[in-house]
Input
Amino acid sequence: MIVEMNVPSPGESISEVEIATWLVADGEYVEKDQEICEIDSDKATLTLAAEDSGAISIKVEEGETVAIGDVVCTIDTSAEGTASASATKSEAPATAPTSAPVVSPTETSYATGTPSPAARKMMAEQGLEMTQGSGKGGRITKEDVVKAKTAMGNGPGPRGSERKKMSVLRRKVAERLVSVKNETAMLTTFNEVDMKPIMDLRKIYKEDFKETHGVGLGFMSFFTKAVTRALKLFPDVNAMIDGKEVVYYDYADISIAVSSPKGLMVPVVRNAELLDFAGVESEIKRLAIKARDGKISMDDMLGGTFTITNGGVFGSMLSTPIINPPQSAILGMHNIVERPVVVDGEVVIRPIMYVALSYDHRIIDGRESVGFLCAVKEALENPTEFLLGGDDSIKDHLGL
Output
């Protein structure tokens, strides 16, 4: 019997996916429930498991985009065999360097090979000779000269190029980013944070914290707790526009941007306002491992009322993060650099981080945005008082 394997729906509003990787070879024997394929949607990477045992016949190549419900392979259940110990990945032929485009005139006339004035000037300057162009009647245009010059190049080394199809995930991310810029009144406000108080606390408690909870006491838990506190003080920052209405949330689902082999993923820490430091660190670690291993699911990334992104891990000093729709604001963390600052009238060296809050000005006014960021700064520079309940409660809040 031949069993057809269809693309399952990975979630609401998703109409197509991309076949990312086949984990088995064409004709290979597979066992029921064996993972045979990885599928990229615009939100996550999913795996497709064999519905029955038999010999697989692959119908769709890696990199192809297919609609939900399409047949991607069949399984011949009458075949006999044993599945290999490890899935064999199908190899796609290497992509050859893309040569410069050959310009072919759509029609031949007296204008064929005749450069426009701008093209003639560029050809003379570059010492180029061309006999055909893409303009009307085969005329050589300025763009033809630019393409020819790029293809020829003057460098001493290789000057090949390569074209790769964008993944569904990357294309959807690109579309969302452009839509945010076009559909929101995005504005960014900045501030700086003296990280010395947090760094001093981590030096004192990080070993006991890790021994007790099995996770490190990182900066992200301090930022998450500072953000949840500020969201309570400025609820507009935790709201979203839905048509002609504004939706306010009495909880804080914090989206944390993490890097993965598939690109940037933004899983959600649910009800972060109810978690202690160990809970935040454990949840972030769990989600980061899932993203790194390609196991992140749709449920892990759905929702979120506010986003934190940390460009500092890559060395970024300052940036203007783009809002993660339909949210109304995002906080950008950056690297920590020792800088001279004035404290109590004296110039001292302190570890300073620049922070940025991008927000939708349609719903969040300047007072709320600046007040929110100042509240975050206040909590980070006075963590004992605002996040840990005072000197006598530090160990209790850290679960030590």
